[in-house]
Amino acid sequence: MVNRIAVIGGGTMGRGIAYSAALAGFTVTLQDISEEAAFRARDYIEGLLTKSVEKGYIQSEQRELALNNLSYKTELKDAVNNADLVIEAALEIMEIKIDIFKKLDEWAPAHAILATNTSTMSPTEIAASTKRPEQCVAMHFFNPVHRMKLIEIIKGLDTSEATVEIVKRVAEKMGKDTVEVNEFPGFVTSRMNCLIGNEAMNMLMEGVASAEDIDKALKLGLNHPMGPLELADLVGLDSRLRNMEYLYQNLGEKYRPSPMLVKYVKAGRLGRKSGRGFYDYSEK
Protein backbone atom coordinates (compact mmCIF):
# COMPACT_ATOMS: atom_id res chain seq x y z
CA MET A 1 0.00 0.00 0.00
CA VAL A 2 1.33 3.42 -0.94
CA ASN A 3 0.93 6.28 1.53
CA ARG A 4 4.22 8.16 1.20
CA ILE A 5 5.59 9.32 -2.16
CA ALA A 6 8.97 10.92 -2.82
CA VAL A 7 9.30 12.94 -6.03
CA ILE A 8 12.86 13.49 -7.25
CA GLY A 9 13.35 16.71 -9.23
CA GLY A 10 11.69 20.07 -8.71
CA GLY A 11 11.29 21.02 -12.37
CA THR A 12 8.14 21.28 -14.42
CA MET A 13 7.24 17.60 -14.23
CA GLY A 14 8.38 16.97 -10.66
CA ARG A 15 6.41 19.84 -9.18
CA GLY A 16 3.34 18.83 -11.22
CA ILE A 17 3.54 15.26 -9.97
CA ALA A 18 4.02 16.44 -6.38
CA TYR A 19 1.01 18.76 -6.68
CA SER A 20 -1.27 16.02 -8.01
CA ALA A 21 -0.09 13.45 -5.46
CA ALA A 22 -0.52 15.79 -2.48
CA LEU A 23 -3.97 16.83 -3.66
CA ALA A 24 -4.91 13.15 -3.91
CA GLY A 25 -4.07 12.66 -0.22
CA PHE A 26 -0.60 11.16 -0.37
CA THR A 27 2.16 12.37 1.95
CA VAL A 28 4.67 13.83 -0.50
CA THR A 29 8.30 14.85 -0.23
CA LEU A 30 9.69 16.81 -3.18
CA GLN A 31 13.47 16.70 -3.48
CA ASP A 32 15.86 18.74 -5.59
CA ILE A 33 19.61 19.12 -5.09
CA SER A 34 19.17 22.86 -5.63
CA GLU A 35 17.61 24.68 -2.69
CA GLU A 36 16.56 27.46 -5.06
CA ALA A 37 14.78 24.95 -7.32
CA ALA A 38 13.00 23.44 -4.31
CA PHE A 39 11.82 26.91 -3.24
CA ARG A 40 10.61 27.67 -6.77
CA ALA A 41 8.70 24.39 -6.82
CA ARG A 42 7.12 25.18 -3.46
CA ASP A 43 6.06 28.65 -4.64
CA TYR A 44 4.64 27.22 -7.86
CA ILE A 45 2.63 24.52 -6.07
CA GLU A 46 1.27 26.92 -3.45
CA GLY A 47 0.33 29.41 -6.15
CA LEU A 48 -1.40 26.74 -8.23
CA LEU A 49 -3.36 25.54 -5.22
CA THR A 50 -4.52 29.08 -4.49
CA LYS A 51 -5.56 29.65 -8.13
CA SER A 52 -7.41 26.34 -8.15
CA VAL A 53 -9.44 27.43 -5.14
CA GLU A 54 -10.15 30.85 -6.68
CA LYS A 55 -11.37 29.22 -9.91
CA GLY A 56 -13.55 26.73 -8.04
CA TYR A 57 -11.63 23.63 -9.12
CA ILE A 58 -10.96 22.59 -5.53
CA GLN A 59 -12.23 23.56 -2.09
CA SER A 60 -10.13 25.54 0.39
CA GLU A 61 -10.08 22.47 2.65
CA GLN A 62 -8.43 20.49 -0.16
CA ARG A 63 -5.80 23.20 -0.53
CA GLU A 64 -4.97 23.04 3.16
CA LEU A 65 -4.80 19.25 3.08
CA ALA A 66 -2.41 19.33 0.12
CA LEU A 67 -0.20 21.93 1.79
CA ASN A 68 -0.04 19.81 4.94
CA ASN A 69 0.85 16.77 2.86
CA LEU A 70 3.89 18.44 1.26
CA SER A 71 7.47 18.80 2.42
CA TYR A 72 10.67 19.77 0.60
CA LYS A 73 14.19 18.38 0.86
CA THR A 74 17.57 18.87 -0.78
CA GLU A 75 19.18 15.64 0.46
CA LEU A 76 18.11 12.60 -1.53
CA LYS A 77 18.65 10.17 1.34
CA ASP A 78 16.40 12.18 3.66
CA ALA A 79 13.69 12.42 1.02
CA VAL A 80 13.37 8.70 0.30
CA ASN A 81 14.20 6.92 3.56
CA ASN A 82 10.53 6.22 4.43
CA ALA A 83 8.92 6.32 0.97
CA ASP A 84 6.57 3.64 -0.36
CA LEU A 85 6.95 4.93 -3.91
CA VAL A 86 9.70 7.07 -5.41
CA ILE A 87 9.02 8.88 -8.69
CA GLU A 88 12.17 10.20 -10.37
CA ALA A 89 11.58 13.20 -12.63
CA ALA A 90 15.11 14.21 -13.60
CA LEU A 91 16.43 15.18 -17.02
CA GLU A 92 16.02 12.75 -19.91
CA ILE A 93 19.66 11.69 -19.72
CA MET A 94 20.24 8.00 -19.09
CA GLU A 95 23.43 8.46 -17.06
CA ILE A 96 21.65 10.81 -14.64
CA LYS A 97 18.71 8.46 -14.19
CA ILE A 98 20.94 5.43 -13.58
CA ASP A 99 23.00 7.34 -11.02
CA ILE A 100 19.82 8.36 -9.17
CA PHE A 101 18.40 4.82 -9.21
CA LYS A 102 21.59 3.37 -7.77
CA LYS A 103 21.21 5.75 -4.83
CA LEU A 104 17.49 5.08 -4.52
CA ASP A 105 18.16 1.36 -4.37
CA GLU A 106 20.54 1.95 -1.49
CA TRP A 107 18.49 4.48 0.48
CA ALA A 108 14.81 3.74 -0.13
CA PRO A 109 13.09 1.06 1.99
CA ALA A 110 13.25 -2.50 0.64
CA HIS A 111 9.52 -2.53 -0.12
CA ALA A 112 9.55 0.76 -2.05
CA ILE A 113 8.68 0.88 -5.74
CA LEU A 114 11.06 2.94 -7.88
CA ALA A 115 9.46 4.69 -10.86
CA THR A 116 10.99 6.83 -13.57
CA ASN A 117 9.00 9.54 -15.28
CA THR A 118 10.45 9.18 -18.76
CA SER A 119 8.92 9.72 -22.18
CA THR A 120 11.33 7.54 -24.14
CA MET A 121 13.99 5.77 -22.09
CA SER A 122 14.30 2.12 -21.12
CA PRO A 123 13.01 1.19 -17.66
CA THR A 124 14.80 -2.14 -18.12
CA GLU A 125 18.18 -0.44 -18.45
CA ILE A 126 17.45 1.86 -15.52
CA ALA A 127 16.20 -1.02 -13.35
CA ALA A 128 19.31 -3.07 -14.11
CA SER A 129 21.30 -0.64 -11.96
CA THR A 130 19.32 -1.80 -8.90
CA LYS A 131 18.90 -5.02 -6.91
CA ARG A 132 15.10 -4.74 -7.20
CA PRO A 133 14.29 -4.70 -10.95
CA GLU A 134 10.92 -6.33 -10.28
CA GLN A 135 9.97 -3.20 -8.28
CA CYS A 136 11.04 -0.75 -11.00
CA VAL A 137 8.69 0.71 -13.59
CA ALA A 138 8.18 3.78 -15.78
CA MET A 139 5.30 6.16 -15.08
CA HIS A 140 5.08 8.62 -17.97
CA PHE A 141 3.15 11.70 -16.83
CA PHE A 142 2.16 14.45 -19.25
CA ASN A 143 2.58 18.21 -19.04
CA PRO A 144 0.79 19.98 -17.40
CA VAL A 145 0.39 17.13 -14.94
CA HIS A 146 -2.57 18.59 -13.06
CA ARG A 147 -4.63 18.84 -16.28
CA MET A 148 -3.53 15.83 -18.32
CA LYS A 149 -5.49 12.68 -17.54
CA LEU A 150 -3.14 9.97 -18.81
CA ILE A 151 -0.24 8.09 -17.29
CA GLU A 152 1.57 5.56 -19.45
CA ILE A 153 2.76 2.65 -17.30
CA ILE A 154 5.70 0.97 -18.98
CA LYS A 155 6.90 -2.42 -17.83
CA GLY A 156 10.57 -3.27 -17.94
CA LEU A 157 11.74 -6.81 -18.65
CA ASP A 158 11.57 -7.80 -14.96
CA THR A 159 8.77 -5.52 -13.71
CA SER A 160 6.32 -7.61 -11.68
CA GLU A 161 2.56 -7.57 -12.18
CA ALA A 162 2.22 -6.64 -8.50
CA THR A 163 4.27 -3.48 -9.13
CA VAL A 164 2.10 -2.59 -12.13
CA GLU A 165 -1.09 -3.03 -10.12
CA ILE A 166 0.19 -0.86 -7.28
CA VAL A 167 1.17 2.05 -9.53
CA LYS A 168 -2.16 1.72 -11.36
CA ARG A 169 -3.97 2.21 -8.04
CA VAL A 170 -1.77 5.23 -7.27
CA ALA A 171 -2.59 6.72 -10.66
CA GLU A 172 -6.31 6.12 -10.16
CA LYS A 173 -6.22 7.80 -6.75
CA MET A 174 -4.57 10.79 -8.47
CA GLY A 175 -7.53 10.93 -10.85
CA LYS A 176 -5.61 9.60 -13.85
CA ASP A 177 -6.41 7.01 -16.49
CA THR A 178 -3.66 4.57 -17.43
CA VAL A 179 -2.47 2.54 -20.38
CA GLU A 180 -0.12 -0.39 -19.93
CA VAL A 181 2.79 -0.53 -22.37
CA ASN A 182 5.41 -3.19 -23.00
CA GLU A 183 8.78 -1.50 -23.19
CA PHE A 184 9.94 -0.32 -26.60
CA PRO A 185 11.77 2.96 -27.29
CA GLY A 186 9.33 5.86 -27.24
CA PHE A 187 6.46 3.77 -25.88
CA VAL A 188 3.16 4.84 -27.54
CA THR A 189 2.66 8.57 -27.20
CA SER A 190 6.23 9.80 -27.58
CA ARG A 191 6.80 7.86 -30.79
CA MET A 192 3.75 9.47 -32.34
CA ASN A 193 4.33 12.96 -30.89
CA CYS A 194 7.95 13.04 -31.98
CA LEU A 195 7.12 11.99 -35.53
CA ILE A 196 4.32 14.53 -35.90
CA GLY A 197 6.33 17.33 -34.31
CA ASN A 198 9.42 16.57 -36.36
CA GLU A 199 7.43 16.62 -39.61
CA ALA A 200 5.85 19.94 -38.59
CA MET A 201 9.33 21.39 -38.03
CA ASN A 202 10.49 20.12 -41.43
CA MET A 203 7.43 21.66 -43.10
CA LEU A 204 8.15 24.98 -41.39
CA MET A 205 11.78 24.79 -42.51
CA GLU A 206 10.68 24.02 -46.10
CA GLY A 207 8.30 27.01 -46.14
CA VAL A 208 5.17 24.87 -46.57
CA ALA A 209 3.24 27.06 -44.13
CA SER A 210 3.74 29.33 -41.13
CA ALA A 211 4.00 27.93 -37.61
CA GLU A 212 0.59 29.39 -36.83
CA ASP A 213 -1.05 27.76 -39.85
CA ILE A 214 0.60 24.39 -39.32
CA ASP A 215 -0.68 24.33 -35.75
CA LYS A 216 -4.10 25.62 -36.79
CA ALA A 217 -4.38 22.92 -39.47
CA LEU A 218 -3.80 20.11 -36.99
CA LYS A 219 -6.07 21.63 -34.34
CA LEU A 220 -9.02 22.30 -36.63
CA GLY A 221 -8.45 19.67 -39.30
CA LEU A 222 -7.32 16.73 -37.16
CA ASN A 223 -8.90 17.81 -33.85
CA HIS A 224 -5.60 17.98 -31.94
CA PRO A 225 -6.05 20.02 -28.74
CA MET A 226 -2.69 21.74 -29.31
CA GLY A 227 -0.59 22.21 -32.42
CA PRO A 228 2.68 20.22 -32.69
CA LEU A 229 4.88 23.33 -32.65
CA GLU A 230 3.02 24.82 -29.68
CA LEU A 231 3.42 21.49 -27.90
CA ALA A 232 7.15 21.34 -28.63
CA ASP A 233 7.54 24.84 -27.18
CA LEU A 234 5.66 23.74 -24.06
CA VAL A 235 7.73 20.57 -23.60
CA GLY A 236 10.99 22.43 -24.26
CA LEU A 237 12.93 22.13 -27.50
CA ASP A 238 16.03 20.87 -25.70
CA SER A 239 13.95 18.07 -24.13
CA ARG A 240 12.39 17.27 -27.50
CA LEU A 241 15.84 17.13 -29.13
CA ARG A 242 17.10 14.71 -26.47
CA ASN A 243 14.07 12.51 -27.10
CA MET A 244 14.56 12.64 -30.86
CA GLU A 245 18.25 11.77 -30.56
CA TYR A 246 17.43 8.80 -28.35
CA LEU A 247 14.77 7.53 -30.75
CA TYR A 248 17.03 8.12 -33.76
CA GLN A 249 19.75 6.09 -32.09
CA ASN A 250 17.38 3.22 -31.27
CA LEU A 251 14.77 3.26 -34.04
CA GLY A 252 16.59 4.67 -37.03
CA GLU A 253 16.34 7.22 -39.81
CA LYS A 254 12.69 8.26 -39.54
CA TYR A 255 13.48 9.81 -36.15
CA ARG A 256 16.42 11.92 -37.36
CA PRO A 257 15.92 15.32 -35.62
CA SER A 258 14.82 18.14 -37.90
CA PRO A 259 17.73 20.49 -38.71
CA MET A 260 15.50 23.34 -37.56
CA LEU A 261 15.13 21.78 -34.11
CA VAL A 262 18.89 21.38 -33.81
CA LYS A 263 19.46 24.98 -34.91
CA TYR A 264 16.89 26.42 -32.48
CA VAL A 265 18.41 24.57 -29.53
CA LYS A 266 21.89 25.80 -30.46
CA ALA A 267 20.49 29.34 -30.56
CA GLY A 268 18.96 28.99 -27.08
CA ARG A 269 15.40 29.10 -28.42
CA LEU A 270 14.05 26.44 -26.10
CA GLY A 271 10.35 27.35 -26.10
CA ARG A 272 8.27 28.80 -23.32
CA LYS A 273 10.92 28.39 -20.64
CA SER A 274 13.43 30.58 -22.52
CA GLY A 275 10.84 33.06 -23.80
CA ARG A 276 11.22 32.08 -27.44
CA GLY A 277 10.89 28.96 -29.55
CA PHE A 278 8.66 28.61 -32.57
CA TYR A 279 6.67 31.41 -30.96
CA ASP A 280 7.71 34.51 -29.02
CA TYR A 281 6.62 34.46 -25.35
CA SER A 282 8.60 37.46 -24.18
CA GLU A 283 5.51 39.63 -23.74
CA LYS A 284 3.27 36.87 -22.29
TrEMBL record:
<dbReference type="Pfam" id="PF00725">
    <property type="entry name" value="3HCDH"/>
</dbReference>
<feature type="domain" description="3-hydroxyacyl-CoA dehydrogenase NAD binding">
    <location>
        <begin position="5"/>
        <end position="183"/>
    </location>
</feature>
<dbReference type="InterPro" id="IPR006108">
    <property type="entry name" value="3HC_DH_C"/>
</dbReference>
<dbReference type="InterPro" id="IPR013328">
    <property type="entry name" value="6PGD_dom2"/>
</dbReference>
<keyword id="KW-0560">Oxidoreductase</keyword>
<protein>
    <submittedName>
        <fullName>3-hydroxyacyl-CoA dehydrogenase</fullName>
    </submittedName>
</protein>
<dbReference type="InterPro" id="IPR036291">
    <property type="entry name" value="NAD(P)-bd_dom_sf"/>
</dbReference>
<dbReference type="Pfam" id="PF02737">
    <property type="entry name" value="3HCDH_N"/>
</dbReference>
<dbReference type="InterPro" id="IPR006176">
    <property type="entry name" value="3-OHacyl-CoA_DH_NAD-bd"/>
</dbReference>
<dbReference type="InterPro" id="IPR022694">
    <property type="entry name" value="3-OHacyl-CoA_DH"/>
</dbReference>
<comment type="pathway">
    <text>Lipid metabolism; butanoate metabolism.</text>
</comment>
<feature type="domain" description="3-hydroxyacyl-CoA dehydrogenase C-terminal">
    <location>
        <begin position="186"/>
        <end position="281"/>
    </location>
</feature>
<dbReference type="InterPro" id="IPR008927">
    <property type="entry name" value="6-PGluconate_DH-like_C_sf"/>
</dbReference>
<comment type="similarity">
    <text>Belongs to the 3-hydroxyacyl-CoA dehydrogenase family.</text>
</comment>
